[in-house]
């Protein structure tokens, strides 16, 4: 159990003694044995789940259907078959009173990627996935962002925020911090709103597509410049990416409400000057200017 | 329209808010996608959404929404409630669907623009 | 209310035509495909700003009467072709989701 001890050392024992409720994914659709396997295929694709519990009509746990079961079914070209034909029974599960450390141990011991969580009547209330556990621990270790305020020359203030790719937990934090900083200056609400939208969409683009990047805002008496630069895959066809609704974000990101394909058009619409420079395999730089309605003193 | 009147109309539960009767709502916007929240035509609208995540609260704050209604009985956990409290954005939850919530409020005269 | 009557009374643009003679009783508005998969009823009108190809798959799976793309968003040719192939009706409205849900609600769709 090397993993247990490593994590324990970093976090202290209290976080690992939380109930599994903290990390379990709720709102898992209630899959019953007479669902067809093709529905499972769609469900797994859209929700990006690698396994879901199977229950009777009252919600009592019967088994689990996982991506490996689905693969066998696809190999058999048998997608019309009921779930009951391919599901795994009996199944290991956790009761709600179990702690995170117990969940970790079970998953490590049996090499499970997921465990259903049940109440005392054996009804499914959620699933602990390896990734949900992992994401929680990662957050607990605190991936806090760096904020830097500089005064590069007289009359100019600059703020820089670090943004981490795939960090959906903190999505929007950098822009919100930026907005708070700008609110202290006497900027017209309309300009504040435009700048906020630009920063937010640029931040989201980094989170969705890149590995890491930064968001920088520079303010002088006449204008606000927003620069978002990332290291990431880059954009192969910028004019396509500028079309409203065009997106390369996978389903699971859209299910969180991101990646609707309106980001770059939204940035452009709110900018007085808009420039984008992207190189495939290197990264993307977006530069926007908002001319202030009211000059700052 | 006062926010507490709206809460009554949609049989809502107040999750975060201290001074409901002082909040005046005259516009509404329904969206599940962050970009669409940002695309709302006006500031000071009421956001109606089925996403119960801290990100939606931050997005609403970015564009100056005056309140959030979370529909379909979605569970609001501590992370979202603490954030809303910190940002002073009222959150109301209802078991009605997004469609029904929009319908009822529209029926009572609330518009997007 | 027949789908055709809804189209006429709310000034919707037909961009992919399936069966317009179906009876419409209820509506759903959501941009989250998994929510629609779990909650849409057969014969629902589905309002969304999603214009992705997967909308057609979900619409077909849930047997909705029609998809209505709101806020005047463009739907690309590939998606329209796929919808026609599957016999899915896609309609377009210049109103945002909120306003269109309201109008549908007022016309008796619940």
UniProtKB/TrEMBL annotation, chain A:
PROSITE patterns noted in UniProt: CBS
Enzyme superclass (EC): transferase
Keywords, comma-separated and alphabetical: CBS domain, Kinase, Repeat, Transferase
Superkingdom of this protein's organism: Bacteria
Pfam families: CBS, HATPase_c
Domain CBS: 24-80, 87-143
The EC number(s) this enzyme carries: 2.7.11.1
Positions in coiled-coil regions: none
Keyword Transferase annotated: yes
Gene3D superfamilies: CBS-domain (3.10.580.10), Histidine kinase-like ATPase, C-terminal domain (3.30.565.10)
InterPro entries documented for this protein: CBS_dom (IPR000644), CBS_dom_sf (IPR046342), CBS_domain-containing (IPR051462), HATPase_C_sf (IPR036890), HATPase_dom (IPR003594)
Keyword Cell cycle attached: no
Molecular function (Gene Ontology), one example: protein serine/threonine kinase activity
Name assigned to this protein: Serine/threonine-protein kinase RsbT
Taxonomic source organism: Psychracetigena formicireducens
Gene that this sequence comes from: rsbT
UniProtKB/TrEMBL annotation, chain B:
InterPro entries, A to Z: DRTGG (IPR010766), Ser_kin/Pase_Hpr-like_N_sf (IPR028979)
Organism superkingdom: Bacteria
Alphabetized Pfam families for the sequence: DRTGG
Domain DRTGG stretches: 6-103
Stated name of the protein: DRTGG domain-containing protein
Source organism: Psychracetigena formicireducens
Lineage of producing organism: Bacteria, Bacillati, Candidatus Lithacetigenota, Candidatus Psychracetigena
TrEMBL record, chain C:
Protein name listed in UniProt: DRTGG domain-containing protein
Domain DRTGG per the UniProt entry, residue ranges: 10-101
UniProt cross-references to Pfam families, sorted A to Z: DRTGG
InterPro entries for this protein: DRTGG, Ser_kin/Pase_Hpr-like_N_sf
Highest taxon listed in the record's lineage: Bacteria
Lineage per the UniProt record: Bacteria, Bacillati, Candidatus Lithacetigenota, Candidatus Psychracetigena
SUPFAM superfamilies: HprK N-terminal domain-like
């Amino acid at each position: 159990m090397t993993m247990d001890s490593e994590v324990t050392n970093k976090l202290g024992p209290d976080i690992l003694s939380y109930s599994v409720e903290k990390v379990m994914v709720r709102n898992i659709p209630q899959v019953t044995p007479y669902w067809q396997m093709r529905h499972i295929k769609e469900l797994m694709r859209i929700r990006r789940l690698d396994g879901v519990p199977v229950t009777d009509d009252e919600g009592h746990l019967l088994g689990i259907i996982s991506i490996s079961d689905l693969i066998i079914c696809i190999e058999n070209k048998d997608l019309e078959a009921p779930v009951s034909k391919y599901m795994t029974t009996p199944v290991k599960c956790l009761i709600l009173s179990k702690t995170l450390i117990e969940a970790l141990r079970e998953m490590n011991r049996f090499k499970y990627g997921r465990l259903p969580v049940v109440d005392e009547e054996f009804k499914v209330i959620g699933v602990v996935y390896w990734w949900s556990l992992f994401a929680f621990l990662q957050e607990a270790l605190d991936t806090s962002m760096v904020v830097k305020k500089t005064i590069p020359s007289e009359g100019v203030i600059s703020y820089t925020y670090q943004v981490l790719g795939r960090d959906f937990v903190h999505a929007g934090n950098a822009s919100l911090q930026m907005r708070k900083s700008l609110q202290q200056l006497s900027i017209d609400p309309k300009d504040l709103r435009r700048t906020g939208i630009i920063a937010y969409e640029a931040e989201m683009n980094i989170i969705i597509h890149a590995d890491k990047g930064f968001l920088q805002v520079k303010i002088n008496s006449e204008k606000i410049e927003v620069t978002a630069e990332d290291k990431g895959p880059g954009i192969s066809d910028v004019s396509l990416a500028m079309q409203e609704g065009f997106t390369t974000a996978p389903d699971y990101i859209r299910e969180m409400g991101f990646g609707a394909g309106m980001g770059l058009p939204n940035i452009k619409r709110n900018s007085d000057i808009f420039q984008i420079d992207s190189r495939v395999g290197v990264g993307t730089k977006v530069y926007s200017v908002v001319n202030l309605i009211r000059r700052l003193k | 329209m006062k926010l507490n009147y709206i809460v009554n109309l949609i049989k809502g539960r107040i999750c975060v808010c201290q001074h409901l009767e002082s909040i005046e709502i005259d516009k509404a916007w329904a969206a599940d996608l962050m970009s669409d929240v940002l695309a709302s035509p006006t500031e000071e609208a009421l956001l109606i959404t089925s996403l119960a995540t801290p990100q939606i609260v931050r997005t609403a704050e970015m564009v100056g929404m005056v309140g959030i209604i979370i529909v379909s009985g979605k569970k609001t956990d501590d992370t979202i409630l603490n954030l809303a409290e910190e940002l002073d954005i009222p959150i109301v939850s209802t078991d009605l669907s997004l469609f029904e919530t929009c319908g009822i409020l529209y029926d009572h005269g609330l518009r997007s623009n | 209310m027949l789908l055709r009557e809804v189209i006429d009374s709310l000034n919707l643009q037909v961009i992919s035509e399936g069966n317009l003679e179906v009876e419409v009783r209820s509506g759903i508005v959501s941009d989250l495909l998994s929510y629609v998969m779990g909650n849409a009823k057969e014969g629902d009108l589905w309002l969304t700003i999603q214009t992705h190809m997967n909308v057609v798959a979900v619409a077909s799976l849930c047997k909705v009467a029609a998809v209505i793309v709101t806020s005047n968003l463009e739907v690309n040719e590939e998606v329209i072709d796929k919808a026609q192939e599957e016999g899915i009706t896609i309609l377009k409205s210049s109103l945002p989701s909120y306003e269109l849900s309201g109008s549908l609600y007022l016309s008796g769709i619940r």
